[in-house]
Amino acid sequence: MPFVSVTRLRLRLVRYLIPFLAHTVLSSLQARRSTGNLGLKLLRDANRTFWTLSIWQREEDMRSFMMSGAHRRAMPKLLNWCDEASVAHWSQESSRLPAWDQAHRNLVERGRPSKVRFPSSSHREFQIPKPHF
Length: 133
Description:
- With 133 residues, the protein is an alpha+beta fold.
- It has one domain: Alpha-Beta Plaits (2-Layer Sandwich), CATH 3.30.70.
- The chain has helices at residues 17-33, 59-66, 69-74, 78-81, 100-110, 121-124; strands spanning 3-11, 37-44, 49-56, 82-91, 112-113.
- A five-stranded antiparallel sheet has the order 2-3-1-4-5, with helices on both faces.
- The longest helix has 17 residues, at 17-33.
């Protein structure tokens, strides 16, 4: 059964935008080339907020991607760069990427906050606005 991952990251300062985008490009190239990747979408939202949505053949494929290469090098930076970060995973019948509204719904219902050093009040209260797409 295909495995879906959605993340939402909000950069706390504009000065992190260029290095964040560089890591995003490298991580997305890695994901697209990774074993088991069935699809990937990125969304630039309002207020320095970015979403990723990926679908994998198996959870193990996603975890292998996550813990290697460019993505692994990017993850520690988010502790300082982001004031909001959240993630959700689920399995589904279809191998198609879900729509952004479904990804948001699953993030709110099934998701969890990721650790950040400078959490916003929205992060602390796990308030996740709908994406603007």
